Amino acid sequence: MQGRVTWVNGLTFVGEAGSGNSVVMEGGVKNNGIRPMEMILLGVGGCASYDVVSILEKARQDVIGCHVELKGHRPDAVPAPFEKIEMEFVVRGRNIKEVQVARAVELSAEKYCSASIMLGKAGIEIVHSYRIEEI
């Protein structure tokens, strides 16, 4: 995996991934882009969501929608690394079996999501929960 981050001006940067995709990042002064710590939070949410949806589809659950609500807790100090991340998965669909959602979230947390496993090994508390919205 490769990437490049290029300074644009002020505190604005463009990150380019080896895949060819890019994102604008900013230090929070002018709000021209995502802040780097927000990228980490969204990255862990994206990684885990990919797992949960993939596992539910393999389990033949009729998933219509899925999102994860994220809360990152950081101290009011510098540096301000994450101390805790809360992830609540909201799965929408028809006849979704709770046991399947619980298993998908558990498998993501303990076996598949490289991002959350890495952060957990770094001492960040990661709390997973879920709710099902029946359509």
List the keywords.
GMP Synthetase, Chain A, domain 3; 3 helices; 3-stranded antiparallel β-sheet; 135 residues; N-terminal domain of TfIIb; 2 domains; 38% strand; alpha+beta; single chain
Helix content: 25-40%
- In total, the number of strands is 6
Count of structural domains: 2
Strand percentage lies at 35-45%
Calculate the mean pLDDT score and round it: 97
Query: Which secondary-structure class do the elements indicate?
Result: alpha+beta
General description of the model:
It is a single chain. By secondary structure, this protein is α+β, with helices and mostly antiparallel strands. It folds into two domains: 34 residues, N-terminal domain of TfIIb (Single Sheet); 99 residues, GMP Synthetase, Chain A, domain 3, CATH 3.30.300. The protein is 34% helix and 38% strand. A hairpin with a 4-residue loop joins strand 2 and strand 3. Helix 1 packs across helix 2. The chain is globular.
